[in-house]
Amino acid sequence: MKALLKALLTTLLWVSLAPAICKAGPDDAADAVVTKLQSTLLDVMQHATALGYTGRYDQLAPVLTSSFDVPYISRLVLGKYWSTLDHEQKSEFIKTFVNYGIAAAASQFDGYNGETFRPVSKEQLESGRVVIRTELVKTDGEVISLDYLLSEKDGRWYILNVIANGVSDLSLKRAEYTAVIRDQGFDGLLAQLKQKTEEYKEPAAK
């Protein structure tokens, strides 16, 4: 189960919710984004062996890239260094970061032990963003909380952040990535992410 939680934290990024919560009942389109993501993750887990790494990657890729506001998350995860990059570097980071996230999920969502997702609550923030709270339930009754922060952009809802059992992966990633850039430069960070992406692949998929 530690591998599953690690996969969730690698794939789903989070920042603490600061805005005050107001009324519940936002657009159902926000719910649909989370529901589609979770149903895809379950399907990949249930058919992990038959799909193999490549099949899992191909099934996850379109859902992950369409569910998350990747440019927004990329800016957050690089912190102050984002503004120092030119357009080409930003594009290269987004591409590399996305490939890494999908590869991590494809590698780690490699089995199914009866886990299920269940909805908990839905609330709208004063900023117009939406928080959808869910739980991942194991067959032994253990529950992992998964809360999603979503925002609407150009008529569509996107996930900005996720928190799993109170663990903020985004803050860890930001600390890690900015430290690499500080010590090894931006190219050093890209090289590390690309190397990790290759390491996630099964030998037969390389």
Characterise the protein shown here.
This protein has helices spanning 2-11, 28-46, 48-67, 70-78, 87-108, 169-200; strands spanning 116-124, 130-137, 143-153, 156-164. With 206 residues, the protein is α+β, with helices and mostly antiparallel strands. It has one domain (2-20, 27-115, 165-205): Nuclear Transport Factor 2, Chain: A (Roll), CATH 3.10.450. Strands 1-2-3-4 form a four-stranded antiparallel beta sheet. A hairpin with a 5-residue loop joins strand 1 (116-124) and strand 2 (130-137). Helix 2 (28-46) packs antiparallel against helix 3, helix 3 (48-67) packs antiparallel against helix 5 and helix 5 crosses helix 6 (169-200). The longest helix has 32 residues, at 169-200. The protein is globular, with a radius of gyration of 17 Å.
Domain module tally? 1
- Helix-strand pattern: HHHHHEEEEH
Number of helices: 6
Instruction: Identify the CATH class.
Output: Alpha Beta
- What's the rounded overall pLDDT mean? 86
Strand content: 15-25%
Helix content: 40-55%
Q: How would you describe the shape? A: globular
Main β-sheet description? 4 strands, antiparallel
Q: How many strand units?
A: 4
The CATH architecture category equals: Roll
Spatial strand order of the main sheet = 1-2-3-4
Q: Compute the separation of the termini in Å.
A: 26 Å
Q: Round the Cα radius of gyration to an integer and report it.
A: 17 Å
What ranges have pLDDT less than 50 throughout 5 or more consecutive residues?
A: 13-26
Please give the structural blueprint.
Layout: H1 2-11, H2 28-46, H3 48-67, H4 70-78, H5 87-108, E1 116-124, E2 130-137, E3 143-153, E4 156-164, H6 169-200
Antiparallel strand pairs: 1-2, 2-3, 3-4
